[in-house]
Amino acid sequence: ELLRGPLYYVLVLMCSALFFWRKSPVGVISLTMMCAGD
């Protein structure tokens, strides 16, 4: 339980960064909100 939460967070963050980093401003905004909220 303790490892699954951060693991899923990092996996979602990496996948979002790979798919949306330069292609979509919405992806960049969502990544920023997810990282800044943490």
Q: Count of helices?
A: 2
Q: Please estimate the helix content.
A: over 70%
Number of domains: 1
Low-confidence stretches: none
Give a short account of the largest sheet: none
* End-to-end C-alpha gap: 19 Å
Work out the radius of gyration: 11 Å
Number of strands: 0
Q: Shape, please?
A: elongated
- Arithmetic mean of pLDDT: 82
Which percent range describes the beta-strand content?
Answer: under 5%
Q: Helix- and strand-based class? A: mainly alpha
What pattern of helices and strands is seen along the backbone?
HH
Describe the structure.
- This protein is mainly α and 38 residues long.
- It has one domain (4-36).
- Helix content is 76%, strand content 0%.
- The protein is built from two helices and no strands.
- It has helices at 4-20, 25-36.
- The protein is elongated.
- The protein starts with a helix and ends with a helix.
- The mean pLDDT is 82.
